[in-house]
Design a protein that fits this description.
Elements: E1 3-7, E2 10-13, E3 18-25, E4 33-39, E5 46-51, E6 57-58, E7 67-72, E8 77-82, E9 91-98, E10 108-109, E11 113-118
Parallel strand pairs: 2-11
Antiparallel strand pairs: 1-3, 3-8, 4-5, 4-9, 5-6, 7-8, 9-10, 9-11
Length: 119
């Protein structure tokens, strides 16, 4: 069955860095777009970074310059490198696999990993 397992979350001070990883299995990884999303308490889930099956990336203005998504098709892994972290980046971060950006909501989701940024 499809599995997306996130890791790498934790507690970090403001200005610090973290690298999240997502291990995928159970589907044709190289044919899927992958993305990272986050949900803070009391807020809606939001897109953090997206990478297409061909490697094109999309990210919102809040993440540009600080968050970098990458993928390793051979290892069936997707990564999110986060730098210059801010307290407002505190959230549960989720990995997603979808056919394309239009089908993210109906794609596969991981269980999430908590990122906490202290001030």
């Amino acid at each position: 069955q499809v599995q997306l397992v996130e890791s790498g979350g934790g507690l970090v001070q403001a200005g610090g860095s973290l690298r999240l990883s997502c291990a995928a299995s159970g589907f044709s990884f190289s044919n899927y777009a992958m993305s990272w999303h986050r949900q803070a308490p009391g807020k809606e889930r939001e897109l953090v970074a997206y990478i297409s099956s061909s490697g094109d990336t999309v990210s919102p203005a809040s993440a540009k310059g600080r968050f970098t998504i990458s993928r390793d098709n051979a290892k069936k892994m997707v990564y999110l490198q986060m730098i210059s972290l801010k307290p407002e980046d505190t959230a549960v971060y989720y990995c997603n696999a979808a056919v394309n950006i239009a089908t993210v909501e109906t794609g596969y989701w991981g269980q999430g990993t908590q990122v906490t940024v202290s001030s």
